[in-house]
Design a protein that fits this description.
The protein has 14 helices and 13 strands. It is of the alpha/beta class. The strands form two sheets. A seven-stranded mixed β-sheet has the order 9-8-10-11-7-12-13, sandwiched between helices. Strands 3-2-1-6-5-4 form a six-stranded antiparallel β-sheet, covered by helices on one side. Strand 1 and strand 2 form a beta hairpin. Helix 8 runs antiparallel to helix 9 and helix 9 runs antiparallel to helix 10. The longest helix has 15 residues. The protein is globular and about 60 Å long.
């Protein structure tokens, strides 16, 4: 058994989401969003290097020795599955292991709004799930793929870095391909997928202009494209896509977004009132004629008002979603305020008085 499995086993027993290993500190577990050290000695560079080398393939050792980061999936001795990132920094090697549950969650189990199931009914176009690292984007997309898999007979091609949830084919055929194992890049994967008679293409991350352009082409040519971006709001997502492509493609990109972008879901994970879990809170954009017109006329800054008035279509802004969840006692207001845009709206819900002076200094919306 690899020695690192002992830490992973302990983490699973504690219900952690991540295990962090770094030189000069003991192993640390992320519990409900907070890092907590394990009662263990500080790790030396040599010790941690031997832990990591034990679980690498020959090819992975060569990549790491060449100065590159590693992203891969790992199954521990106890059967737990993890997404792993190995890297080097000033003090030496480091690694993060993220636990991937064995069962693919349903949208209902994740307490997702019903509108997300409706997004799965689209036959073409693009649906984006966005948010910072560690906000559960992959989990939400896995639940959407599972929803399709259980209800429709489709050819679903998933491009991931690395593969996380493993989907057994049910009503649909699901083909999962991993970056640097099965395809050289996301763009190459989308290009190949379009020749494989797909109905749905999942792109793990729209991380560069070439991938975005290939995903746009797939969405315009009769496929449903699901993807992620590391953006923190619906408007920022649209602006990021426009800004990511060459200037000469700006009008073409705006036309695509106006016509083929179906929805943007931005999520954060907020602690529950008892501090023992976290709940996904969503900002949701559903494209309609008014939003399409704003995109085409370079008035994306006005889209937020459309989200506020589009509740009947399933739309919501982040602040409203957070306030609704606080009122329903689903989340901790002291944690929720970290994700709010207009923090002063949340002052009356705060129980930690140490936060109030900070708000007074910050002031106004977005402070």
């Amino acid at each position: 058994m690899a020695r690192i499995d002992a830490f992973l086993k302990l983490g699973l027993a504690q219900g952690c989401s991540d295990l962090h290993l770094a030189v000069g500190v003991p192993p640390m577990l992320r519990m409900n969003g907070d890092l907590m050290p394990i009662k263990f000695r500080e790790l030396s560079d040599t010790e941690l290097e031997t832990y990591i080398q034990e679980i690498l393939t020959t090819k992975q050792r060569e990549v790491l020795a060449g100065g590159h980061d590693l992203d891969f999936s790992y199954v521990g001795e106890e059967g737990g599955r993890f997404r792993v990132n190995v890297f080097r920094k000033v003090t030496g090697i480091g690694a993060v292991f993220r636990h991937i549950p064995g069962n693919v969650p349903t949208l209902e189990q994740l307490n997702m709004p019903p509108i997300l199931a409706k997004f799965c009914d689209y036959h073409q176009g693009m649906v984006l799930v966005t948010g910072s690292t560690g906000t559960g984007k992959s989990t939400t997309l896995a639940a959407m793929i599972n929803h399709l898999n259980e209800r429709r007979s489709l050819n679903i091609i998933s491009l991931e870095d690395p593969i996380e949830f493993v989907h057994p084919s049910k009503q649909s055929q699901i083909i999962q391909r991993e970056l640097n194992t099965h395809v050289g890049s996301f763009a190459d994967g989308v290009r190949a997928a379009m020749r494989e008679d797909p109905d749905v293409i999942l792109v793990g991350e729209l991380r560069d202009a070439e991938t975005i352009m290939m995903a746009m082409t797939a969405a315009e040519t009769g496929h449903l494209v699901l993807g992620t971006l590391h953006t923190t709001g619906a408007v920022k997502t649209i602006d990021r896509i426009i800004d990511a492509l060459p200037g000469e493609l700006r009008e073409q990109t705006k036309a695509f977004l106006a016509m083929s972008l179906k929805a943007v879901v931005t999520q954060v994970l907020v602690k529950t009132p008892d501090g023992r879990g976290r709940r996904a809170i969503l900002e949701i954009l559903v494209n309609n004629r008014a939003i399409s017109k704003l995109i085409q006329s370079d008035q994306t800054h006005q889209i937020a008002s459309q989200l506020q008035t589009g509740k009947d279509l399933g739309m919501q802004v982040m602040d409203t979603a957070l306030l609704d969840a606080i009122s329903a006692k689903q989340i901790d207001p002291d944690d929720a305020i970290r994700f709010a845009n207009d923090k002063n709206k949340f002052k009356r819900f705060i129980t930690d008085t140490d936060l109030v002076p900070t708000l007074d200094i910050a002031g106004g919306p977005g402070g």
